[in-house]
Amino acid sequence: MKVKVSHITKIFPSRNKKSKETVTALDDFSFEIPDGKLVGLLGPSGCGKSTMLNVISGLEKPTSGRVYFGEDDVTDLPPEVRGVGLVFQNYALYPHMTVRKNIMFPLENLKGDKKLTKEQMQERVEQAAKLVQITDYMERKPSQMSGGQQQRVAIARALVKLPGILLLDEPLSNLDARLRLQTREELRRIQRETGITTVFVTHDQEEAMSISDMIVVMKEGVLNQVGKPQEIYDDPVNLFVAKFLGTPPINVFRGRLAGGRLMIGSEPVLEAKAAPDREVWIGVRPEGFIPAEDGELTCSFVNVEVMGRDTTVVSTHPDCENASIRSIISSDLKVEPKNGSVKFRLKPHKVHLFDAETEERLRTELLPVGEGREHA
Amino acid sequence: MRKNLKAWLYLLPAILFLGFFMVYPLVDVLVYSFEEGYNSASQTFMGVGLYNYSYVLHDPYFLQAVKNTLILVIITVPVSTGLALLISLGLNSIKKLKELYQTVYFLPYVTNTLAVGLVFMILFKKTPYTDGMVNMLIKLFGGSSVDFIDGPYWAKMFVLCFYTVWIVLPFKILILTSALASVNEDYYKAAKIDGASKWRVFTRITLPMISPMIFYLVITGFIGAFKAYSDAVALFGTNLNAAKMNTIVGYVYDMLYGDSGGYPSYASAAALILFAIVFTITVINLLISKKQVSV
After folding, report:
1. What is the pLDDT along chain A (376 residues), one digit of tens a residue?
2. N or C: which end of chain B has fewer CB within 10 A?
3. Residue by residue, what is the 3-state secondary structure of B8-70?
4. Which of A88, A96, A161 faces B294 most closely, judged by CB atoms?
């Protein structure tokens, strides 16, 4: 089912009774999720991701704005009639019920013409359990299961009603690193098999990048960017988005545009045609560095980390905001520091410029040094 | 070994203390209960046997006391636990003035038993000058007045039960409100998403989640009600046998110090019978709770 949220604002009253201050968790939030897609709501903790999820599920009412499922306005509907499945961060499995009873619970609540017979219920429970591969544990209590298994039960419980939309709140945060990778794939598989529109909340950009069809990046209740993972990575709208996505993170330099050139310190690193002089933030993706003896950017060499497939060069630069610059280069290329420094040329399409004040993206065309002159 | 020694050393004060003031007297009570014709002044007895038990079990006062105690237990434990649950649910779901209501409900707990007894006397007692508050109300609704303190058995029992429920309620409310508050909010959210009705949420989620606390209250409630004594004194005075409102503990006390007292052997036998009853009921309770409490 298609999900559309339009101009959602959610204001919470202050927790402190004395102060009249309110907290704006979501500020004029609009986006659309196409049918059958897996969407990641991504942002740092406290940015309103979970609130957004709760607004979609109906557990929270927005202060203003509307929520649409398909063509229907569901803003005023209570959660149980919206037909959503929700998986909680801590799974919220009922501890006194067996796995089977946990999964069956939503079915037993169905009323009217949706009511199922005992056999139909059993069948649906079996189907859901099979989908998440927990058929061997049906008579266990949640406390007798590992985190990953509990997670599967929670997903089965959310899916057993055959909801139109599946919502997951930080689905992987309670799992250890290995299980997280595995469950991530599992989530993707379940979503593909069922074709259900799925929204999950995460603060882990890698998680969001790896399995989402679409990412919604948010910060402090404000939508920053919506798009496919690769698009957002390649074309961030502001410095926050650029910094938030990618591991190792983007390398940020203080720099300026001067005389048609992009300067870091006193070194012109790229040509920038017809750009007015100004102070800028320069973001360079780790893969945007090419080690070259005649390179324009000189950095102090720290060390090389060999990962087999590629090599990470760690270096520092006085104008760099990051503690160290991490550049990923092909392992074919040799890096030989001279006098403790290493020189790089920069790939123009891996370099993003941002306004020094607003941190908004500047769409200045960049070219390697030298080429700009020839064209001019 | 050395570690063990240290542990015993730490335990020693408590063991000595408990040994002197609990284990020894308890054993003594057991011994007294089998000593026939024991005289505490001369520390002599005539023989050993079951006569004390037989006497107590044939004493109409004791049988009356057992009957009273059982009625008290059977009525007050379920009623007080049920009421406490209802009130706690109410307290848990209101937002405005929650603290105020919690304090109000907790007040009886910090009030002296005898002071409360006095209040109940004023409410229920019939004197030549006034029929008491409750009777005024009964009359207002067209009933005829009843003497709750010196009147028929059922009326006195009613007051005793009423009083007991009222006095044990605050503690139970305190325990249950905190038990309810400790149930993770996410379970309720999950149940809401799952479309469970309020009643189903209560029976299938809330109740099982707080069931350990409910069983704790039932068990301690049973024990407390079996040991009731001061409540009856507060309402009906010290001559409980005459008022037919004695309890088992009251009977034990009377056998020791009352007007008809001076019989530690009978008192010991009665106390051990009470112990046997409480022990049996508690074991049954625990067995049931093991089956039922599943969290």
Report:
1. 889 999 999 998 876 666 677 888 899 989 999 999 999 999 998 888 989 999 999 999 999 999 999 889 999 999 888 889 999 988 999 999 999 999 999 999 888 778 888 899 999 999 999 888 889 999 999 999 988 889 889 999 999 988 989 999 988 888 888 888 888 888 899 899 889 999 999 998 988 998 899 999 999 989 999 999 999 999 999 999 999 998 889 999 999 998 888 989 888 888 887 778 889 999 999 999 998 888 889 999 998 888 778 889 999 999 998 889 999 988 887 788 888 899 999 999 999 999 999 999 988 888 888 764 444 3
2. N
3. HHHHHHHHHHHHHHHHHHHHHHHHHHHEECCECCCCECCEECCHHHHHHHHCHHHHHHHHHHH
4. A96
Q: Which of A57, A80, A96 sits opposite B195 (nearest CB)?
A: A80
- Residue B290 near chain A (CB below 8 Å): no
Q: Tell me if ipTM is over 0.90.
A: no
Say whether residue B187 is in contact with chain A using an 8 A CB cutoff: yes
- Chain B residues whose CB is inside 8 A of the A79 CB are 192-193, 195
Domains of chain B, first to last = 57-292 (1.10.3720.10)
Surface of A (167-196) touching B: CB under 8 A: none
3-state helix, strand, coil in chain A (%, to 5): 30, 35, 35
Residues B49-108: pLDDT tens digits?
888 899 999 999 999 999 999 999 999 999 999 999 999 999 888 878 888 888 888 888
Edge to edge, the sheet with strand A22-33 lists A22-33, A3-13, A64-69, A72-73
CB contact under 8 A, A86 and B190: yes
Say whether A105 and B192 touch across the interface (CB within 8 A). no
For chain B, what percentages of helix, strand and coil (3-state, to nearest 5) are there?
A: 75, 0, 20
How would you classify the pairing of strands A165-169 and A84-87?
parallel
Cα–Cα distance list, B76 to A83, B65, B66, B166, B267 (Å): 45, 16, 15, 9, 26
- A109 at B interface, C-beta within 8 A: yes
- Identify all chain B residues contacting A158, using CB atoms and an 8 Å cutoff: 193
pTM of the model: 0.79
Q: Select from B120, B114, B116, B144 the least CA-distant residue to B132.
A: B120
What does the longest C-alpha to C-alpha distance in chain A come to? 80
Is A59 in contact with B192 (Cβ distance < 8 A)?
yes
What is d(CA A190, CA B250) in angstroms, rounded to the nearest whole number?
69
CA distance B94 to chain A (A): 17
A202 min Cα distance to partner chain B (Å) = 18
For residue A141, which residues of chain B lie inside 8 Å, CB to CB? 294
Look up residue B84 and give its two tokens. Answer: 């406490």
